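Dear H.,

Thanks for agreeing to be a second pair of eyes. The structure we're designing against is below in token form, covering all 95 positions.
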């Protein structure tokens, strides 16, 4: 199975798809940055997920673009030091 970022890099290179994606998709660049950062951490991914109380299934869904839970992404951003004001202001999934 392809990593979601690989698919997105290929698809977002096409203007028609990018325009559609920006209107419809709820997996944002923040989520892609989090996934990329986690894939390159020295610490075990499973240790990080356990520390943040995120299930392996939830991470798999996030990584594959199946379901983005902004609360989980927010915890991951905090862990990775990616927090900044207004980071999730445009998130349609944030309750």
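And this is the sequence the design step returned. I haven't edited it by hand at all.
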């Amino acid at each position: 199975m392809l990593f979601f970022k690989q698919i997105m890099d290929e698809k977002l290179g096409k203007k028609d798809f990018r325009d559609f994606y920006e209107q419809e998709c709820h997996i944002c660049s923040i989520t892609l940055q989090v996934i990329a950062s986690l894939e390159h951490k020295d610490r075990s991914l499973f240790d990080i997920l356990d520390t943040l109380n995120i299930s392996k299934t939830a991470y798999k869904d996030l990584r594959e673009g199946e379901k983005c839970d902004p609360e989980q992404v927010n915890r991951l951003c905090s862990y990775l030091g990616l927090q900044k004001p207004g980071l999730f202001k445009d998130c349609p999934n944030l309750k």
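Two observations from my side: The radius of gyration is 13 Å. Helices lie at 4-12, 15-24, 29-39, 45-51, 56-63, 70-80.

Warmly,
E.
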